[in-house]
């Protein structure tokens, strides 16, 4: 087991290096620099802009810039943002709590919907409940988040005027009032993301459970006279969970990566909005750091999913 | 009316022999607008003593206004004005820092940290135009309680021009010399007579940061200054918290140097999102008091305004959307350089073709159907301040006239309906950045041109490429490897010198200067060069205004430049909010005077 994990971690190193090379090259090839706004401003002489580029090392050859970045990264120095001139790790840490709270809550909501609905629908296939659940699931994951987001804003903020649609991190209130405000402004982004994810997962859970329901050991369990609840929980769900765990585990990096579109719509200051504004501003160190962390998390959670298999299904062994 | 007549009239106003109203009437008779006439009086020193550039401030005590909530759809990322590349960051810095003076929307200076605006009468301006002496306001304190003095002002000059600090503002400071005269007087010295003396320490780039906070970070370590993120300024609002790319909070400064100001107790500036929902948050739900830069279709804004909670503020400035007709040939390579200054555009060298092109764009349609209140049609390149606006230019949309012109000039229609002459076909590549109103403008232009036998090939380039300075990219607007292009150019100062240098021959964009020259259309005129140089050294404001008007007429008259619509700044605010806005300075330039009416 330990050996397996070590080996997997070692394999991860070249993949991470490869990822960073690809990312850096693509970013370096992309046109533009962080000082575009200066270009159309006649008060800023062009050579000032050129000097700024040079001061950030943007005129060096790509491989030099990459090596520079890599050696700094290995020393734990993530570099500093071109546009805010502060260390990237600070920027990311500042965004992390909001992202984890909002995206995490939406994932919990998605699971809370997908598991019971999916299992219940699969144990009663083609019942009225199954049909309705299926239809709603299709509707749910066919509607893109930017659309449902706007729809919710139109209805709850503008028509009913119940919920605010601008997310504020600094709420001047304490105690339960703070919590109330926080929940009020989080409802819509969490709903948008949670329902979308939940709809997709419901379909997935349903089909996974459906695969197991017809297996012989379930029939055996039933013939032993076990209660239906016990059969579902111990004999069906546990076996059906293996593919679901992979899916959920692979989704976990997104909790840290944020949701670009939804964060933009509701002005949630998460990592997704950090990434998109960094991309728009050509802020290479920030883009590199966020995408690199994201890549690392994907690899890590992949490994975690594999390890979890062993726990769910003792027949799987690690070599 | 000659210059002498004008001077005579002004002298009569000064002596009291002619009323100000009478003067304005006479000016109107010769085609000068009333604002321009009053401006002429103002700069000639015949303005009424209490000319009000900013609205009167009513509250009689400090604070009590509650919270002011401002929404920016672009978020501020740093709070050091010397590093602020865009207006968002300049605005965010301006919440805390102040310049010596700011520009009111009528194009006049308003003292902020200065005790008075320098003038020839008060001895502030040297008569040879080589220096300006600023008297600083006494008793101003930084937010941390230290005194503001001339040392701070001098320090900002040293800080900004130091290449190791790599500031964005260095263009305003590197060519001047700043001398401390005494603790409350500084002198800015210029290498040559400079009629436009109000650049250093004025407006958005003139914000002054405290020496005691930055003196240890005035080199390559400038990034490490804690005050970059925790500003200590002199303004009406003190720093509370800042999350880069998200929001900014401030609170009332009880020791502010202007009486009874500010009105609001706390301030929040939230960033991010998009312009339409920002407009909604103000106009429809009233969650926010003010939303910056409403780049939203006017139709949508009108619909949102109908909710009755807020209104749209339109501030007329110098930004202009215009078309350039390349003076050089983009399809011919000379020494590995396209659009080289050694070539001539095969079609646009004929003035008839250029004139026809100017006749073929329906500015009325642009204003009515595309830009609305955010884009009034104009015939001038230089539109504001009013004293620089030419009364001589007219625009017209007439396909028939364009056809007649081209026929007369010998451009005959071929079998495919496209005109040609001596093997040169009127088929042009027309490029601009990707932006919905611009693509619609392109379509309107193309349709009209087609009816005059001119084929426009439309090309749109992503804004981040089009406006980049990437030397390797052929699609940037500074390379201009196309026959025509269109974009908006901004005029950040109330003086047109920096704005009008876009057509002087030594600014021509070329390979030699890495396409960093500002004369992108590559138009040359000896007369323009000469008048521009004269204007640079002309200290008489009336003569100087006349010169800039002449420059505008020269370049617009050449039709290499086709002005389309003005782009005033558009913002949204609640009905009860009284913001003080200016076209020539930042949104926050007079935040200390913002109030709410009960």
From TrEMBL, chain A:
The keyword Transmembrane helix applies. InterPro entries: BPD_transp_1_N, MetI-like, MetI-like_sf. It is a multi-pass membrane protein. The chain crosses the membrane at residues 9-30, 100-123, 135-160, 186-205, 240-266, 286-312. Residues 96-305 form the ABC transmembrane type-1 domain. GO terms for biological process: transmembrane transport. It is found in: Cell membrane. GO terms for cellular component: plasma membrane. Its main location: membrane. The keyword Nucleotide-binding does not apply. Pfam families: BPD_transp_1 (PF00528), BPD_transp_1_N (PF19300). Keywords: Cell membrane, Membrane, Transmembrane, Transmembrane helix, Transport. SUPFAM superfamilies: MetI-like. Belongs to the binding-protein-dependent transport system permease family. This is ABC transporter permease.
From TrEMBL, chain B:
GO terms for cellular component: ATP-binding cassette (ABC) transporter complex; outer membrane-bounded periplasmic space. It holds the Pfam family SBP_bac_5. PROSITE patterns: TAT. It is found in: Periplasm. SUPFAM superfamilies: Periplasmic binding protein-like II (SSF53850). Residues 124-506 form the Solute-binding protein family domain. One of its GO terms (molecular function) is peptide transmembrane transporter activity. This is Peptide ABC transporter substrate-binding protein. It comes from Neoroseomonas oryzicola. The lineage of its organism: Bacteria, Pseudomonadati, Pseudomonadota, Alphaproteobacteria, Acetobacterales.
């Amino acid at each position: 087991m330990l050996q397996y994990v070590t080996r997997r971690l070692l394999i991860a190193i070249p993949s991470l290096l490869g990822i960073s090379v690809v990312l850096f090259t693509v970013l370096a090839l992309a046109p533009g620099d962080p000082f575009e706004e200066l270009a159309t401003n006649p008060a800023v002489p062009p050579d000032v802009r050129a000097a700024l580029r040079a001061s950030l090392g943007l005129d060096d050859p790509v491989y030099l810039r990459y090596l520079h970045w890599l050696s700094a990264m290995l020393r734990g120095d993530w570099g500093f943002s071109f546009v805010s001139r502060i260390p990237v790790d600070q920027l990311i840490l500042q965004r992390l709590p909001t992202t984890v709270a909002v995206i995490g809550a939406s994932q919990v909501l998605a699971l809370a919907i997908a598991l019971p609905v999916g299992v219940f629908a699969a144990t009663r296939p083609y019942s009225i409940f199954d049909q309705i659940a299926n239809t709603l699931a299709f509707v749910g994951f066919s509607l893109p988040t930017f659309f449902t987001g706007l729809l919710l804003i139109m209805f709850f903020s503008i028509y009913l005027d119940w919920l605010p649609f601008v997310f504020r991190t600094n709420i001047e209130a304490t105690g339960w009032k703070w919590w109330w405000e926080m929940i009020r402004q989080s409802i819509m982004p969490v709903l948008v993301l949670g329902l979308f994810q939940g709809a997709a997962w419901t379909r997935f859970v349903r089909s996974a459970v459906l695969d197991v329901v017809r297996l012989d050991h379930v029939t055996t369990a039933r013939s032993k006279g076990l209660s239906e609840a016990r059969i579902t929980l111990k004999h069906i769900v546990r076996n059906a969970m293996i593919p679901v765990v992979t899916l959920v585990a692979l989704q976990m990096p997104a909790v840290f990566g944020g949701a670009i579109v939804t964060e933009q719509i509701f002005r949630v200051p998460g990592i997704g909005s950090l990434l998109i504004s960094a991309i728009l501003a050509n802020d290479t160190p920030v883009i590199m750091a966020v995408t690199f962390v994201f890549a690392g998390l994907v690899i890590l959670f992949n490994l975690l999913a594999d390890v979890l298999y062993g726990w769910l299904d003792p027949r799987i062994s690690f070599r | 009316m000659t210059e002498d007549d004008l001077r005579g009239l002004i002298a009569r106003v000064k002596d009291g022999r002619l009323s100000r109203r009478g003067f304005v009437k006479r000016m109107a008779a010769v085609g000068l607008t009333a604002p321009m006439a009053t401006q002429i009086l103002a700069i000639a020193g015949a303005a009424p003593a209490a000319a009000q550039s900013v609205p009167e401030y009513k509250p009689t005590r400090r604070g009590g206004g509650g919270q002011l909530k401002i929404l920016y759809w672009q978020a501020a990322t740093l709070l050091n004005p010397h590093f602020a590349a865009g207006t968002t960051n300049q605005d965010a810095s301006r919440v805390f820092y102040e310049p010596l003076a700011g520009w009111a929307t009528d194009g006049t200076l308003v003292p902020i940290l200065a005790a008075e605006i320098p003038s020839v009468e008060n001895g502030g301006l040297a008569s040879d135009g080589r220096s300006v002496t600023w008297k600083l306001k006494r008793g101003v304190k930084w937010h941390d309680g230290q005194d503001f003095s001339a040392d701070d002002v001098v320090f900002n000059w040293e800080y900004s021009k130091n290449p190791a600090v790599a500031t964005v503002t260095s263009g305003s400071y590197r060519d001047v010399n700043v001398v401390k005269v005494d603790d409350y007087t500084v002198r800015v010295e210029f290498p040559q007579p400079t009629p436009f003396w109000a650049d250093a320490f004025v407006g958005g780039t003139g914000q002054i940061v405290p020496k005691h906070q930055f003196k240890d970070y005035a080199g390559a370590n400038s990034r490490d200054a804690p005050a970059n993120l925790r500003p200590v300024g002199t303004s009406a609002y003190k720093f509370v918290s800042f999350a880069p790319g998200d929001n900014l909070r401030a609170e009332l400064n009880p020791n502010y140097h202007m009486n009874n100001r500010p009105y609001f107790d706390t301030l929040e500036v939230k960033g991010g999102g998009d312009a339409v929902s920002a407009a909604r948050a103000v106009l429809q739900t009233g969650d926010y008091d003010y939303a910056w830069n409403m780049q939203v279709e006017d139709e949508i804004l009108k619909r949102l305004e109908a909710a009755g909670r807020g209104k749209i503020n339109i501030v007329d400035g110098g930004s202009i959307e215009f078309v350039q007709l390349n003076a050089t040939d983009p399809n011919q390579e000379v020494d590995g350089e396209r659009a080289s200054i050694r070539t001539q555009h095969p079609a646009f060298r004929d003035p008839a073709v250029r004139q026809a092109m100017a006749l073929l764009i329906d500015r009325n349609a642009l204003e009515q159907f595309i830009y609305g209140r955010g884009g009034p049609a104009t015939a001038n390149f230089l539109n504001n301040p009013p004293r620089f606006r030419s009364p001589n230019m007219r625009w017209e949309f007439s396909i028939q006239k364009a056809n007649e012109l081209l026929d007369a000039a010998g451009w005959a229609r071929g079998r495919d309906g496209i005109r040609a002459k001596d093997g040169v076909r009127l088929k042009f590549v027309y490029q601009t950045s990707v932006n919905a109103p611009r693509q619609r403008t392109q379509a309107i232009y193309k349709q009209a041109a087609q009816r005059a036998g001119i084929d426009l090939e439309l090309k749109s380039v992503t804004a981040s490429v089009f406006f980049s300075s990437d030397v390797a990219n052929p699609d940037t607007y500074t390379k201009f490897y196309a026959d025509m292009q269109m974009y908006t150019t901004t005029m950040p100062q109330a003086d047109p010198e920096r704005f009008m240098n876009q057509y002087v021959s030594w600014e021509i964009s070329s390979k030699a200067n890495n396409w960093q020259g500002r004369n992108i259309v590559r138009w040359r005129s000896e007369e323009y060069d000469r008048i521009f140089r004269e204007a640079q050294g002309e200290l008489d404001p009336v003569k100087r205004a006349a010169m800039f008007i002449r420059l505008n007429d020269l370049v617009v008259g050449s039709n290499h430049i086709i002005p389309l619509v003005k782009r005033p700044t558009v913002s949204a605010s609640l009905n009860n909010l009284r913001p003080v806005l200016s076209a020539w300075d930042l949104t926050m330039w007079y935040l200390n005077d913002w109030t709410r009416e009960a």
